[in-house]
Amino acid sequence: MLDEEGPMSTELEPSPGTAAAPAWRPEPPAACAVSIVCPVYNEALNIAELYQRLARVLPGDDVEFIFVDDGSTDGTYEGLRAIAATDPRMRIIRFRRNFGQTAALSAGIDHARGAIIVPIDGDLQNDPNDIPRLLARLEEGYDVVSGWRRDRKDPLHRRLPSIVANRIISLISGVHLHDYGCSLKAYRREVLADVRLYGEMHRFVPIYASWQGARVTEMVVDHHPRTRGKSNYGIERTLKVILDMLVVKFLASYATKPIYVFGGFGILSLLAAVAVFCAMVYLKLAHIRDFVATPLPLVVVMLVLVGCLSVLLGLVAELTVRTYYESQGKRTYSIREVVEQR
Ligand code: UDP
Ligand code: MG
To answer: What DSSP assignment string belongs to 256-282?
Structure first.
């Protein structure tokens, strides 16, 4: 007979993979105050000046400069090494190949040790002089301060689609900022703890954070034209950004209950099938049209099929969601703090 309290079972060590993760872990203390995170791709002409300006604005020891070399081929890495030799606050992450700005930013954030994380572009379009103001604003009690390039110095064919995209994103997300695309932002590290970035999604981090309960604000920052090197993007980015927004919105609203979307659509489809079927029978009984004289039987079959498949797809989606959360010990909520007094 199996005895669950027997000596055999008490000797078994719980395997690390199956141990339930705690619902909430306090953040480990940050190793420094501020991490500047700068993704660079072929910015050899800009990094030296950018570093000098950053170092001038942030002279303290309590700062680290993380440069992520996103597979540059123009000597950016060598330039960064030369700078790092003169300043122990420099940290360099070098990608094996070009993975894109979002991935680079993501890597920088993963390695950041500061209590506050400030991403900045490596092409001198953002102004390091804005950083102290961003930090001061954060101190006023915000979790995210997002830059707003009100006087943006990019060509019109870049600015116009961006204005439209910003409006759409503001409408869909309900988080009202003027300029999601501005790289220069400041985050408290806690709000970035669980954020994973895909596609062009780095611009949605404030939205994501706000949905998790973070206090988000924006601040006008300076912007300069790109004088050296060339931009890595064209107009097609606007489309990608809007599609990414849809993904983020879907995930945020339905990530824990996909059956509501798929099942809802499926039930609508089945109801429509019933309605069409009734119409078809009515037409037949009233001797207006025979079944074969209309496309209605086909429509009924199609609606029933789509309806059933949608509901089944919803069930599969529910399975994946459970796998996603439970295999990683993820929670469906986000805690600001826990107060305990034994
Ligand atoms: N960047 C990157 N990887 C890429 C493309 C861009 O790390 O694949 C960096 C680039 O070096 C710059 C920042 O992302 O520091 C913004 O890029 P860019 O200036 O080309 O964008 P724009 O300002 O034109 O929107
Ligand atoms: Mg730029």
So the answer is: T-HHHHHHHHHHHHHHHHHHHHHHHHH
The number of domains in the chain is: 2
Quote the ligand 1 centre to 43 CA distance (angstroms). Answer: 9
Nearest CA to ligand 1 atom 16: 121
Ligand 1 neighbourhood includes 104 CB (under 6 angstroms): yes
125 Cβ closer than 6 Å to some ligand 1 atom: yes
Residues 204 and 303 in one domain: no
Closest-CA residue, ligand 1 atom 15, reads 122
CATH number for the domain spanning 229: value is 3.90.550.10
pLDDT in tens, 163-184: 998 998 999 888 999 999 999 9
| Domain interval for residue 295 | 259-326
Q: Are 145 and 209 in contact (CB under 8 A)?
A: no
Residue 219 β-bridge partners: 147
**Shared-domain flag, residues 41 and 66:** yes
This prediction has a pTM of: 0.79
Residue 5 gets the label, from left (phi > 0), alpha (psi -120 to 50) or beta, of alpha
Query: Is there a single domain that holds both residue 125 and residue 73?
Result: yes
Ligand 1 centroid–CA 232 distance in Å is: 6
